[in-house]
## 1
Amino acid sequence: MADFNFNDGLLHKVFLAGVGALATTVEKSQEIVDDLVKKGEITVEQGKALNAELKHKAEEAKAEETKPASDEKKD
């Protein structure tokens, strides 16, 4: 296999790209839920619950994404 030199700068940029993608996904999901509420396809309470669930899942994914990065630095 090819010998790749992954320095901390590259790993940091990849991590930030992942966080940015996650944030963009959460924002877009919230926009979709808000549109559904406006159209009356779901109730306001259902929209609030769905937004809260999306935020919770995003926080879990972010925490999971940070775990390997911190584990690598310990080694």
## 2
Amino acid sequence: MNGVTPLFLSGPGASEAFLVARVLFGVVLAFMGLNHFQNADSMSGYAEMKGVPAASLAVPFTGGMLLFGGLGILLGVFPVLAAGAIVAFLVVTTPLMHDFWAVPEDQQQDEMTAFLKNVAMLGAALAFLAAGSAEWAYAVGVGL
């Protein structure tokens, strides 16, 4: 990478810290994407219960978004598209699938926890989206 880092990532160890963040975030997202394929039937049933139209198509589609986004962030391949896919996924699915304000009281805590987890991941995805136009250290570099 010739020692170039995004402007907000300067100083000793910044490139390595950013790499660790990419690995942690990307692996979790890719795992979540694979889970959409491995557990498609149960996830489709849950999505149908939440009112998702064409849930049996939406689950693998969103699984693909997560898999592409996770691997893209992890490897530094088309990072703007990868982070954008994650942002789009989280903006749409978070209030739709984790509507803690609209579920019975015994389900509210679980849904709120999932909602807040997604909001935190949205913040991270936005940070990767902002960093996407800069050159990433230790990246494949396609689309950078």
## 3
Amino acid sequence: MAEIAFKIDNRSLKQQPKNIRKEGKIPGIIYGEFLKTPIPIQVKNNILTKLLKSNSNGSIIPLNVENKIRNCVVKDVQKDHLGNLIHIDFQYVKDNEVIKMKIPVKYLGQENLENKRLVLETYTPFLELQGEVEKIPEFIEFDISNLNYEDKVFAKDIPLPKDINLLTETETLLAIVNG
């Protein structure tokens, strides 16, 4: 978990998202089972960019809203057709809360494939997992160094930590080795 809380500002629901964006901010929302009502927010674009870079692995992010720290995870980032950020959703999480998250799969041993003149073609870069927020890893590593031409990696092949459930369909094709 990051040691610094990111400063996030409240916003009025009366504020038009396009006007917020003209001010160099991105509209968003914090929601969660343990919040009485969702919290509409706005984040300076440069702060949001730093936040997303520091959270490239889907970890818990402390957000400072009205001088109250809330631990959140990024649930959705919306971009326009040019790739510009236009909206962000955060989910507020409590310790020991069971949540669902999409976690990236990182492949180890790609240099061994390259030595065989093979490449890994990925189809599904994430697994959807469920478990206590503290037990869900930031990413899952899978060793592909011993794979050969046309070997496939399915969701069911990825070893998961104890007490973490796979929500992705087990037969989902994650990657295939090609020449």
